[in-house]
Write a structure and sequence with these properties.
about 400 residues; alpha+beta; 7-stranded antiparallel sheet; 9 helices; 25 strands; about 25% helix
Length: about 400
C-alpha cells in the first residue's frame, strides 16, 4: 500500500552517499507518488551542504526544510551519525520555503520580513515550521511576529557543531549558519503542536544582577560559576572548562515571568572562562532565577503530555508525520537510554512515522493558545503534520 508520509535514515562515512541512500529509501516507499515536501535531519558528522546537494539531485525542486543536529531522532530513539529524511506526498498538499541568511546580523529586520511574508500569504498558509541558528542571534525576537499570526507555528534552534559556534539550517537549496529557514504549509496540510519539559525546581533562588547581551554575569552579585559552586559543590574553577562548562546545560535557570507560578526555562550554552553564562536568548536584569534539575521519569511523562497536546491541537485532521524537536539537555540527561521514552510515541500514534533531532531551543505557539509565544529551553516539542480532509 502506498503511503503519503515516509521516512528514510542512512549511515555512511560519506555524507553525500548517506543522503542518497536515505532519500532513495523514502522515495521507494512512496512508489509513483511525487513528494510535496521534504524534511532533513542531518547529523553534525556530515557537511550539510553536501547532504543537501545529494538530496536535491533526487528530489529536484521539492521544497526542502531541515537543520543540523547533534543526533537525529525517530520513534525508535536516537539515530547517531545518520541522515534522516521525511517525505510527504498527496494531492492538495502545498509547501513553500523562505530563507533568510542574515538572521543573526539583523534579527529585528528578519522578524519583520518574516511577518510580512506570512501576511502576503494569508489564507494560503495553515502552519509554519521554523529552524534558526542555535548559538548566535536571538530567536525570541520572532515571538512578537508570531503572536500577530492566527497560525500554528513550531520551531527549533539547530544544535549541530554548536561547540564551534556554527549551527546550520537548511531551506530550499541553501544550507548555512546564522540563518532562519521557514517552511510554510498550505492546502490540505495542517500543523498541530505540543510541548512540555521534565525539569524540576530545586528551591534555590538567585536574582539576576548583571547581564550583557547574551551573557549572564551576575547572580546575587556573584559570578555565575561561583553561585553554581556554592549550590552544587564543585570548585568554582572547575566550571570554567569541560566537562562542567558544558554539563551546565543540565542546570537551567527558571526565570519568573508571573511570580513563582510561571517559570520560563533558559539554558546556558556553556560557562565561559571568566565564570559567566553564555545563553542563546537574553535574560533581563532584576529577574528572579530558580535553579532547575532534570528528572528522566518526568521527561517520559512530559513527552507523553506533549504528544497528547499535539493530537488535540491538530483537531480533526489525520496525522501524517510526527516531528520531534527535543532539547540537547535531554540527550545528556538520558545518557543513551532514550529509546523507551521515544518508543511510547508509536503507541500514542500507531503507524505515524517520526523524524527530528536534538535542538538548542524550542519555539511553539498554537493559534488557539491563550499565552504569547515564547522561546524556551529544555522542552520536547512535538509537531504533527496532518491532512485536513483525510479520515483518521
Amino acid at each position: 500500500m502506498t503511503k503519503s508520509a515516509v521516512i528514510g535514515f542512512s549511515r555512511h562515512w560519506d555524507g553525500r552517499e548517506a543522503a542518497r541512500q536515505a532519500v532513495q529509501s523514502a522515495l521507494d516507499q512512496l512508489g509513483n507518488s511525487r513528494p510535496a515536501l521534504a524534511l532533513l535531519s542531518v547529523s553534525q558528522d556530515y557537511t550539510a551542504a553536501d547532504v543537501l546537494q545529494a538530496a536535491g539531485n533526487l528530489l529536484g525542486n521539492v521544497p526542502v526544510w531541515g537543520f543540523h543536529t547533534t543526533c537525529p531522532l525517530s520513534a525508535e530513539g536516537e539515530q547517531p551519525r545518520t541522515v534522516g529524511v521525511a517525505l510527504i506526498a498527496g494531492s492538495g498538499y502545498k509547501a513553500s520555503i523562505n530563507w533568510w541568511p542574515n538572521f543573526v546580523q539583523d534579527g529585528h529586520g528578519v522578524a519583520t520580513q518574516f511577518a510580512r511574508v506570512v501576511r502576503t500569504q494569508t489564507g494560503n498558509t495553515q502552519g509554519i515550521l521554523l529552524a534558526a541558528d542555535g548559538v548566535n542571534g536571538d530567536a525570541s525576537l520572532l515571538c512578537e511576529s508570531i503572536d500577530q499570526m492566527n497560525l500554528h507555528v513550531a520551531g527549533g534552534l539547530a544544535s549541530g557543531d554548536y561547540r564551534s559556534g556554527r549551527t546550520i539550517c537548511i531551506g530550499g537549496n541553501h544550507a548555512g549558519s546564522g540563518a532562519l529557514s521557514a517552511l510554510l504549509l498550505g492546502g490540505r496540510l495542517r500543523l498541530g503542536l505540543g510541548q512540555a519539559h521534565g525539569w524540576k525546581d530545586t528551591g534555590w533562588l538567585w536574582k539576576v544582577t548583571r547581564v550583557r547581551d547574551l551573557w549572564v554575569q551576575g547572580l546575587d552579585d556573584k559570578s555565575p560559576a561561583a553561585a553554581l559552586s556554592e549550590v552544587l559543590g564543585y570548585p568554582e574553577k572547575d566550571w570554567f572548562s569541560p566537562p562542567l562548562s558544558e554539563y551546565v546545560r543540565l542546570y537551567p535557570l527558571g526565570i519568573e515571568t508571573d511570580g513563582r507560578k510561571s517559570l520560563l526555562l533558559r539554558s546556558p550554552l556553556r560557562v565561559e572562562v571568566d565564570g559567566n553564562l553564555r545563553m542563546n536568548s537574553h535574560i533581563a536584569e532584576g529577574k528572579m532565577a530558580h535553579l532547575m534539575v532534570g528528572d528522566p521519569a518526568a521527561c517520559q511523562t512530559a513527552l507523553k503530555t506533549a504528544a497528547d497536546e499535539a493530537v488535540r491541537s491538530l483537531g480533526s485532521a489525520a496525522p501524517l508525520l510526527g516531528i520531534l524537536l527535543v532539547d540537547e539537555a535531554w540527550r545528556t540527561l538520558l545518557e543513551g537510554h532514550s529509546g523507551p521514552i521515544y518508543e511510547q510515541l508509536q503507541a500514542t500514534l500507531p503507524g505515524v512515522p517520526w523524524i527530528g533531532g536534538y535542538t538548542l531551543g524550542q519555539l511553539g505557539w498554537p493559534a488557539t493558545g491563550s499565552v504569547s509565544s515564547q522561546l524556551v529551553n529544555q522542552h520536547a516539542l512535538i509537531a504533527l503534520i496532518g491532512d485536513a480532509e483525510a479520515q483518521s
